[in-house]
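Researcher: We plan to redesign the surface later, but first we want a full-length starting point. Tokens attached.
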């Protein structure tokens, strides 16, 4: 079933399967008959919960978020833990069955486990904290505090389990997945928790017809989040298009920007730098050579040594690139990294001859990644170096041209097998 996944994920998969089974085993044998009490109400919430699960918004690292949390939160407050676990189990099975053609079976089972654990943990905690199903008063501080605790629990369990799963499956740094997922989902949960609470109050006081009217703002919240993620994708697509435009001028650097971005992110992760910094670094790496748009092709593609005048023109590209990027709001923070990625620790770089700590860390990381890729790929004037030769040359210039901590992070990444290149 999961033979093509890492052994570590298989163990994690089995762990989540056991936990979800424990939740279900305490509910189904003796409490299945509760579905027949107020059957129409249970069926109604099952339908809208299942419908909400059919409208996911895709996040980075292949994670997803939906508006179903608001509905599940209301179910917890209205019906309690047993009904919550049962409805989540049924709705998730239906959802995963409908996605069976596009979702591997083991991922579907994991998703079912995930929802059962999230619903079970959150709903049981709600009751342990004194929450009584069917009774909610949003004017009481203890009721509001319970909702906050349940929301935080659901969020942490959700993001925590997904982070572990994706880091095991895709061999990515867990903290980076956790940071990006939390950053993107937290506003969603903050918006949905009040909606879920109001949904419960409206049902308790008005009934199903009141809930139907209230679904409009819930769908609006989902639509707004989808627009935000679409806009983010447009930003990233714009960056990729710009990077492709650069490389179209120089066939010898095809894929250079992508490789520099890859190496830069691995180095930054090895240095355990924060997620916001890594996001900025990614954009800067993809666009670090965009200033070459203003450099004549005969200079960029010249097979021999450049004249002093030609090299002076090439040296303009970091400042030109920074001036282009800083005009775009979502890229402006990356402009400094681009502007100074050819500076050297000893002050012999360009465009401003910065020294030591005056060079931004992002620019220093780009400098190492850029040099490493340049050495390990073919250029018009020479063949690619072997990886060990390139690393030796970079180490020789550690503390002179490159920051020592960045060089060490590159070397550690190579030794750990996080960077693999077939040259020479």
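Model: Full-length starting sequence:
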């Amino acid at each position: 079933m999961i033979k093509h996944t890492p052994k570590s994920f298989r163990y994690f998969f089995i762990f989540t399967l056991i936990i979800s089974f424990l939740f279900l085993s305490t509910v189904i044998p003796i409490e299945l008959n509760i579905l027949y009490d107020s059957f129409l109400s249970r069926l109604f919430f099952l339908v809208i919960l299942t419908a909400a699960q059919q409208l996911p918004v895709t996040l980075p690292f292949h994670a997803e978020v939906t508006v179903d949390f608001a509905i599940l939160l209301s179910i917890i407050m209205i019906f309690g833990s047993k009904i919550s676990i049962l409805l989540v189990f049924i709705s998730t099975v239906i959802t995963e069955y409908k996605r069976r053609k596009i979702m591997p079976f083991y991922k579907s089972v994991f998703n079912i486990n995930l929802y059962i654990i999230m619903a079970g943990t959150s709903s049981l905690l709600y009751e342990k904290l004194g929450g009584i199903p069917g009774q909610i008063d949003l004017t009481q501080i203890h009721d509001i505090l319970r909702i906050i605790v349940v929301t935080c629990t659901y969020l942490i369990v959700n993001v925590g389990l997904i982070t572990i799963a994706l880091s095991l499956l895709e061999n990515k740094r867990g903290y980076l997945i956790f940071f990006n997922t939390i950053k993107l989902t937290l506003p969603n949960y903050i918006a949905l928790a009040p909606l879920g609470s109001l949904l419960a109050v409206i049902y308790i006081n008005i009934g199903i017809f009141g809930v139907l009217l209230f679904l409009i703002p819930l769908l609006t919240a989902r639509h707004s989040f989808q627009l935000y993620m679409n806009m983010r994708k447009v930003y990233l697509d714009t960056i990729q298009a710009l990077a492709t435009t650069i490389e179209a001028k120089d066939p010898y650097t095809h894929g250079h920007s992508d490789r520099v971005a890859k190496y830069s992110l691995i180095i930054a992760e090895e240095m355990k730098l924060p997620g916001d910094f890594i996001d900025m670094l990614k954009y800067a790496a993809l666009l670090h050579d965009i200033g070459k748009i203003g450099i004549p092709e005969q200079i960029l593609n010249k097979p021999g040594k450049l004249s002093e005048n030609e090299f002076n023109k090439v040296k303009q590209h970091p400042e030109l690139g920074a001036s282009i990027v800083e005009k775009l709001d979502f890229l402006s923070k990356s402009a400094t990294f681009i502007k100074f990625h050819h500076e050297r620790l000893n002050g012999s770089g360009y465009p401003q001859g910065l020294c030591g700590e005056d060079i931004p860390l992002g620019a220093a990381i780009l400098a190492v990644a850029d040099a490493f890729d340049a050495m390990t790929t073919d250029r018009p004037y020479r063949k690619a170096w072997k990886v060990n030769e390139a690393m030796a040359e970079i180490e020789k210039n550690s503390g002179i041209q490159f920051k020592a901590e960045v060089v060490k992070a590159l070397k550690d990444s190579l030794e750990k097998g996080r960077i693999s290149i077939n040259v020479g």
